[in-house]
Amino acid sequence: MNAQPPIIELQHLSKEFRVGFFRKRVRAVRDLSLTVHQGEIFGFLGPNGAGKTTTIKMLMGLIYPSQGQAKLFGLPSDDLRAKARLGFLPEHPYFYDYLTGLEFLNFYARLFGLSSSIRSVRVERLLEQVGLSHARKLPLRKYSKGMIQRVGIAQALINDPDLVILDEPMSGLDPIGRKDVRDIIFRLRDSGKTVFFSSHILQDVEMLCDRVAIVTKGQLRKLGTLHDLLAELSGLKTEITFSGLSPLDLEQLQRLAERIVVPGPRATLVFPNERLDEAVRLILQKGGKLESMIPLKGTLEDLFVQQVHATQDEPSPLQDEPSASTLPENTQPSQETTRDA
C-alpha cells in the first residue's frame, strides 16, 4: 500500500446536466471514486462520451459535481493553493493566435508571478523540450495543430507543477511528436511529478502508465496496474499457423477467426479460445497441417474493447457528453451544477 497521501482523490463523484427545452437530466459521471499517488503516470481511458472530459473539468474546478468531491493534494479542487501546484492542457486548447510562441509562454509565466530571470530561462528550455525553438517567434496562428499541442504542453509545465493533467495530449501529433511527449512525461515522473492523462492512443498508454482506469457510460469499470489487468486476459486467444487447406475451406475457417495475421495457403489466424477446438477440428478434418499454436497475452486494446462491448447493452445514462461551453446560452445554471463564487 502506498504510504504517500493521494495527489488526486475522487470520492463518489457524479455529474448531471439539464439540457434542452424540457431541461432533461443527462448524467455524465456516476459515483466515480479513485486515487492517484505521487510519482504515478495514470491513464484515464474510455470511449467518446464516457465522461472523461467532464471528470477532468470537475477535477480542475471548472465545473462542480452534482454529488461527491474532488480533491488535489488533500485540498478541494477549486482551492488556489492546489491550483498553484497544477499544470493543465485541455483537449481542444485555444490560444490568442497573434502572440508568438515566445510571447505566449512569457504571458503564462507572468501569470504565475515568475521573475524575469527565471521566466526567460524556463521559457527557452520548454520551447526546446517540445521542439519549438525554431518557431519561437512565429505567431500561433501560423502553427499547425501539432505545434499548438506542443506549445500547450509547454504552458502546462511553465510553473514547474507537481501534478500535470493532460486531456488527450497526443492529439494531432505525428510519431516523432508522440515520442517527444512520451519522453517529457517520463522525465516528469523521474523528477517526482505526477501525471494524469486521458488518451485514445492505447499503444502510448501501455508504454507510459503505471496504472489505468477504464470508464464507460460514466462509470468506472476497471482500475489497476497494467500487469494485473492484462493478467486477467492471458490465455483467452491462440494464434494458429497451418497450411494445406483449399480456398473454400480456408474461407470457412476465417469466419471463426478473430483476426487474420498472415493470409494465403500458409496462413496464420488468431482464434478466441472458445472457438479453438472447432478451428483445430476443421483444419484436421479438411486435410490441413498444423504448424504451430501459440497462446497470446492480452493487450490493453483487448481489455478496452472487452469493457466497451460488455456495457453496450446497458441503458445509456448519457447522450453526447455535454460540456459547459455547449450548454444553451439562455440556460440558467441550476444550484446542483454550480456554486456561488
Q: How do you describe this structure in short?
A:
The protein is of the alpha/beta class. It has 11 helices and 14 strands.
Pattern of helices and strands: EEEHEEHEHHHEHEHEEHEHEEHEH
The strand line-up of the biggest sheet is 6-7-8-3-9-10
Give the radius of gyration: 24 Å
List the total number of helices: 11
Q: The biggest beta sheet, please? A: 6 strands, mixed
Residue share in helix: 25-40%
Count the beta strands.
Answer: 14
What would the average pLDDT be, to the nearest integer? 85
Attribute tags:
alpha/beta, 341 residues, 6-stranded mixed β-sheet
Please, could you describe this protein's structure?
- By secondary structure, the chain is α/β, with parallel strands linked by helices.
- The chain is 32% helix and 27% strand.
- It contains 11 helices and 14 strands.
- It has helices at 52-60, 80-83, 101-111, 116-129, 145-156, 175-190, 202-208, 226-231, 247-254, 276-285, 300-310, and strands spanning 6-19, 24-37, 41-45, 67-72, 75-76, 86-89, 163-167, 194-198, 211-216, 219-225, 237-243, 259-262, 267-272, 289-296.
- The strands form 3 sheets. A 6-stranded mixed beta sheet has the order 6-7-8-3-9-10, sandwiched between helices. Strands 2-1-4-5 form a 4-stranded antiparallel beta sheet.
- The longest helix is centred in the middle third of the chain and has 16 residues, at 175-190.
- The radius of gyration is 24 Å and the shape is globular.
- It starts with 5 loop residues before the first strand and ends in a 31-residue tail after the last helix.
- The model is unreliable at 318-341 (pLDDT under 50).
